[in-house]
Design goal:
- The protein is 28% helix and 24% strand.
- The chain is of the alpha/beta class and 383 residues long.
- The chain folds into two domains: 117 residues, Lyase, Ornithine Decarboxylase, Chain A, domain 1, CATH 2.40.37.10; 252 residues, TIM Barrel, CATH 3.20.20.
- Strand 3, helix 4 and strand 4 form a beta-alpha-beta unit.
- Helix 8 runs parallel beside helix 9.
- It is elongated and about 70 Å long.
- Bound molecules: pyridoxal-5'-phosphate.
- Pyridoxal-5'-phosphate binds next to strand 10 and helix 10.
- One of its GO terms (molecular function) is pyridoxal phosphate binding.
- Pathway: Amino-acid biosynthesis; L-lysine biosynthesis via DAP pathway; L-lysine from DL-2,6-diaminopimelate: step 1/1.
- Belongs to the Orn/Lys/Arg decarboxylase class-II family. LysA subfamily.
- Specifically catalyzes the decarboxylation of meso-diaminopimelate (meso-DAP) to L-lysine.
- Homodimer.
């Protein structure tokens, strides 16, 4: 990954830098790989990065949009994603959000409870519409990732419990304004071990076999997202292994005639194309440590503070002999730390530093805590 530092001089730090070549390369790879599998469809998970310039590029590659709020539905449709390719999940859909989704005639609601199903039916009836619905099932499959981004265990708040599938489908089929079309799953994020996805496939196969005995057919199987990226060595593994990922599903998921498989990829699409660019404010010496205090903090990139995420940090301004630093932000929280005891070429006030692999769950999760400005995302094409 290269950084046009000369062009950075006119931009206020901290900011996100998005490399459009990497994004396009990633999207081309996804397109090539899914074209090898009949019935595979990818929805980009808007939650990972909803920067309008980024969405503008993603929508060119014919992906659908995976949304979890009315705001994301608006954002994706305004960015040119067709409503008929929008799927909408979330445990707490508000009435106005359901109305909005129905008004746009989105492809499908991923419904997470029977309580929600009843409200969707009620609102659809008032609008004289039929809502297409997949049930999000909690498959109770372990994902070997951080506890805060595991979603498919019985203890998680997401989805309908395995044992309630039959009841849920029976209820859905009896509702006049609901069309039940399939099942939805999402076991977690930043998953690199294909065995976790194989475990999901095996669980889905069991569910399908069981449903078939009762004469229930599924048009859609949505397996969610979750493919991880290499945070340790981004340059060596810039493009996630989409071939292995899609081939794994093709091999282990027992599809029925005409069935579609939908994917909801977020991190693996936008993660590696983005870096948080920040400047060193001070090098502070304590009796035991040397702190590199950046002008970016947890308000700009919360992942390290929220779930101990690691982002590779590089010094863009110097190649001097390496020294050991704790790299921290300016926020008044002890958890505002990006890395401890790492070796970096000697840092000076004003040096540019990049926190890599920050294109997903970075800018979109920024906050104004401490009354700070929100970081702006710049696409390389536009600099
Ligand atoms: C339902 C659902 N689908 C897709 C995603 C995207 O996951 P990822 O960014 O790991 O691909 C998420 C992430 O939380 C999710 O909750």
């Amino acid at each position: 990954m290269t950084y046009p530092i000369e062009k950075f001089k006119d931009i206020e730090t901290p900011f996100y830098y998005y490399d459009s070549d990497i994004l396009r390369h990633t999207l081309r790879t996804i397109s090539e790989e899914i074209s090898k599998h009949i019935g595979f469809h990818v929805h980009y998970a808007i939650k990972a990065n909803a920067n309008p310039d980024v969405l503008n590029i993603i929508k060119e590659y014919n992906l659908g949009a995976d949304c979890v709020s009315g705001g994301e539905i608006e954002r994706s449709i305004n960015s040119g994603f067709p409503a008929k390719k929008v799927v909408y999940a979330g445990v707490g859909k508000a009435d106005w959000e359901i109305e909005l989704a129905l008004d746009y005639d989105i492809f499908c609601f991923n419904v997470e409870s029977l309580e929600e199903l009843a409200i969707i039916n009620e609102i659809a009836e008032k609008k004289e519409k039929i809502a297409k619905v997949c049930f999000r099932i909690n498959p109770n499959v372990v994902a070997h990732t951080h506890a805060s981004i595991t979603t498919g265990l019985a203890e998680n708040k997401f989805g309908i419990a395995l044992q309630d599938i039959h009841k849920a489908i029976k209820v859905a089929k009896a509702l006049k304004n609901i069309e039940f079309i399939g099942l939805h799953f999402h076991i977690g994020s930043q998953i690199l071990d294909m065995d976790d996805f194989i475990a999901l496939c095996n669980r889905i196969n069991e569910i399908q076999d069981d449903l078939e005995v009762k004469g229930i057919k599924l048009k859609i199987i949505n397996v969610g997202g979750g493919l991880g990226i290499d945070y340790n060595n981004p340059s060596e593994n810039l493009i996630p292994n989409f071939k292995l990922y899609f081939d794994t599903y093709a091999k282990y998921l027992q599809l029925r005639e005409g069935q579609e498989v939908h994917f909801e990829l977020g991190r693996s699409v936008t993660g590696q194309m983005g870096s948080l660019i920040t400047k060193v404010l001070y090098i502070k010496h304590s009796s035991t440590k040397k702190f590199a205090i950046l002008d970016a903090g947890m308000t700009d990139l919360v992942r390290p503070a929220l779930y101990q995420a690691h982002h590779k940090i590089i010094n863009l301004s110097s190649t001097e002999v390496k020294e050991t630093y704790d790299v921290v932000g300016p926020i008044c929280e002890s958890s505002d730390i990006f890395a401890k005891d790492i070796l970096l070429p000697k840092l000076h006030r004003g040096d540019y530093v990049a926190l890599q692999s920050a294109g997903a769950y970075g800018e979109i999760m920024a906050s104004q805590y401490n009354c700070r400005k929100l970081p702006i995302g710049y696409l390389s094409d536009k600099l």
